[in-house]
Amino acid sequence: MYFGELVAKISGYMHHDPCILKMLHQNLKKSQGNHAKDELWTICSDAAMVFDKIEDLSGEHFVDWHKALDTYIQKLLNFLLKGTIPAMTDFVALVSNSIEECRVTQCDKSGKTLEHDYSHHTLGSSPSRRQG
């Protein structure tokens, strides 16, 4: 997905429901003052930037990225509705959690899942090289 698509989808989701938008603006106004309307656009842009960078860096082929983005948007919305302005580390954590929830589990011919061969804890290991 392209950065512009990510920004459009995230900001569209944040702005589609007038009730949610009103709550978001109220929460942002409490913490940011008069810049609340501009702040939501900035948050959407920052959220898209972090998702885009992690997607590019991950090289992960077994993630349903559209589902991961939808999950990320929902997590971000819940975060914002609590009245918290996310820092960059919060965006990274939200993206990471969303990716983990949306990993595609595929089976090879022997019935083993890819996660069996490539568990989350064996970074750098490879069963094909007899390392895992």
Task: Give a written overview of the molecule.
This protein is an all-alpha fold and 132 residues long. The protein has one domain (3-119). The chain has helices spanning 3-15, 18-32, 36-58, 65-81, 88-101, 114-117. Helix 1 (3-15) crosses helix 3 (36-58), helix 2 (18-32) packs across helix 3 and helix 3 packs across helix 5 (88-101). The longest helix has 23 residues, at 36-58. The two termini are 32 Å apart. Mean pLDDT is 80; it is low at 117-132.
Radius of gyration: 18 Å
Q: Which percent band covers the strand fraction?
A: under 5%
Count, helices:
6
Question: What overall form do the CA principal axes indicate?
Answer: elongated
Structural class: mainly alpha
Characteristics of this structure?
132 residues; mainly alpha; 6 helices; 65% helix
